Recover the amino acids of this structure.
């Protein structure tokens, strides 16, 4: 029996996207999880995980807090003496690897670069400097898309071994194909944090134009709203342009009544879970040519690809979708399900993780 330590920055991602992996690991191993306490921690403990409450300061840029995190990881590793360490996201990846001193196998996950790393500037320079210290200590690095791997190679970061994953995959037993809604209207949904880089401005502009031209349409929005967009959403809802649902616990409920998921992001994604879940539910998708999104779309087969930050292109693709015959829309959804069954089943991801232990 091995001791496996998982370092992550939140409980939501670990439970929602990696629960199946954790269950597999728990079959023959002791699993410790080091992350901040959150609403899903008790469920992870119930599964059999041993929880270590760890303050990550995930959005903090304070070097003293990061130094504290590094020392915290050192203490945890010294106490538990794990046989393997799995890490997710930037801070656990970097400080977990440095804390291990290269003496314990580190399986690191690049779940998307994030804008701070992708965009040139001081934060990028510091992060790359820290990654150059950390990556030689990593046994294997899991990448969720080719572009992230290319970024590491371009910036001369040492890669001892790597595995390209189809994102976090999608649980196809949970996200089953849902019956396609009636043809009485055409309804679209944006499921994401309401923030600029997720393409909310393009979605709202498209909704305004389309609702004026095609009154028999609806535009839903689900997700936490950044403060700067609160008033805008309120006004557009009053004008009957959008329907804002706030945070939705179970997106399957909104997918039941919508015909197409629109994800016009230009955020540095790993692999979009929203798109995978929509496809698993047999819903067509419209998304950007952004890495982490474009891999999920066969253009014209299970949805449409649009240029990033291009409202006119988004409007054009939405119009194309609206004007399709009902059976054709339905067919795109069927194809979406087939696509994820073949390429993005979470069982594929779990198998790839286990092969590296």
């Amino acid at each position: 029996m091995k001791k496996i330590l998982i370092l992550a920055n939140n409980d939501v991602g670990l439970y929602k996207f990696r629960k199946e992996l954790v269950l597999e690991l728990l079959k023959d191993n002791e699993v410790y999880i080091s992350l901040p306490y959150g609403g899903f921690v008790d469920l992870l403990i119930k599964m059999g995980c041993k929880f270590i409450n760890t303050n990550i300061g995930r959005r903090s840029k304070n070097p003293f807090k990061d130094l504290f995190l590094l020392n915290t990881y050192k203490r945890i590793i010294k106490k538990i003496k794990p046989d393997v360490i799995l890490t997710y996201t930037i801070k656990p990846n970097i400080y977990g690897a440095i804390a291990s001193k290269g003496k314990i196998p580190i399986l690191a996950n690049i779940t998307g670069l994030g804008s701070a790393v992708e965009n040139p500037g001081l934060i990028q320079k510091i992060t790359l400097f820290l990654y150059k210290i950390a990556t030689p200590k990593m046994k294997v690095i899991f990448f969720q898309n080719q572009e992230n791997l290319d970024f590491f190679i371009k910036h001369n970061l040492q890669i001892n071994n790597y595995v390209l994953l189809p994102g976090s995959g999608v649980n196809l037993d949970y996200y089953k194909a849902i019956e396609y809604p009636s043809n009485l209207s055409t309804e679209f949904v944006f499921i994401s944090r309401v923030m600029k880089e997720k393409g909310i401005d393009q979605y709202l502009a498209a909704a305004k134009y389309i609702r004026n031209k095609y009154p028999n349409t609806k535009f839903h929005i689900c997700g936490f709203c950044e403060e700067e967009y609160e008033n805008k959403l309120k006004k557009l809802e009053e004008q009957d342009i959008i329907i804002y649902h706030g945070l939705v616990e179970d997106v399957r409920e909104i997918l039941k009544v919508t015909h197409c998921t629109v994800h016009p992001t230009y955020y540095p994604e790993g692999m979009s879970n929203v798109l995978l879940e929509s496809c698993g539910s047999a819903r067509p998708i419209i998304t950007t040519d952004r890495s982490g999104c474009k891999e999920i779309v066969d253009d014209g087969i299970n949805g449409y690809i649009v240029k990033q930050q291009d409202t006119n292109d988004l409007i054009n693709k939405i119009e194309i979708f609206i004007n399709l015959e009902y059976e054709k829309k339905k067919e795109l959804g069927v194809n979406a399900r087939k696509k994820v069954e073949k390429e993005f089943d979470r069982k594929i991801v779990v198998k790839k993780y286990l092969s590296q232990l």
User: Anything to note?
Assistant: The longest helix spans residues 11-28.
